[in-house]
């Protein structure tokens, strides 16, 4: 495969690595993945991934939560660093109580905020920097 490191053609780590499975995936691979908290409560599903082009990193995972069959979902921009990948169950974990998440800065699916706005970014990041497991 062009541009692949030896031993990584399948997207699997080499035998010297501590992780099992792919560590480089397309955003569409995780779209639809479930997000649960540490008590196995379902919080929602990843709807999209927001990239910070200037920094060259993933900034947020957009979480759809609270709706039924896609209706009435409220969206939340979860800082990427707040999520932990659970490879075994093909999902992500967020150390957050469902009630705490309901009070997080969110938005309707047809009214996305300007995620490049410094004030919005600061509000979201400071919310997730607080103790969010206690509720």
Task: Kindly describe this structure.
By secondary structure, the protein is α+β, with helices and mostly antiparallel strands. It is 16% helix and 30% strand. The chain has 3 helices and 7 strands, in the order αββββββαβα. It has helices at residues 27-30, 98-102, 118-129, and strands spanning 34-36, 42-52, 57-65, 74-79, 83-86, 91-94, 106-108. It has a 7-stranded mixed beta sheet. It is globular, with a radius of gyration of 16 Å.
Helical content stands at 10-25%
Largest sheet: 7 strands, mixed
Number of strands: 7
- Supply the number of helical segments: 3
Order of helices and strands: HEEEEEEHEH
- Strand pairing plus helix content: what structural class? alpha+beta
Give the strand order of the largest sheet, numbering strands 1, 2, ... along the chain.
5-6-1-2-3-4-7
Beta percentage is 25-35%
Please name the defining characteristics of this protein.
135 residues, alpha+beta, 3 helices, 30% strand, disordered N terminus
Q: How is this structure best summarized?
A:
By secondary structure, the protein is an alpha+beta fold.
Secondary structure layout:
Blueprint: H1 27-30, E1 34-36, E2 42-52, E3 57-65, E4 74-79, E5 83-86, E6 91-94, H2 98-102, E7 106-108, H3 118-129
Parallel strand pairs: 1-6
Antiparallel strand pairs: 1-2, 2-3, 3-4, 4-7, 5-6
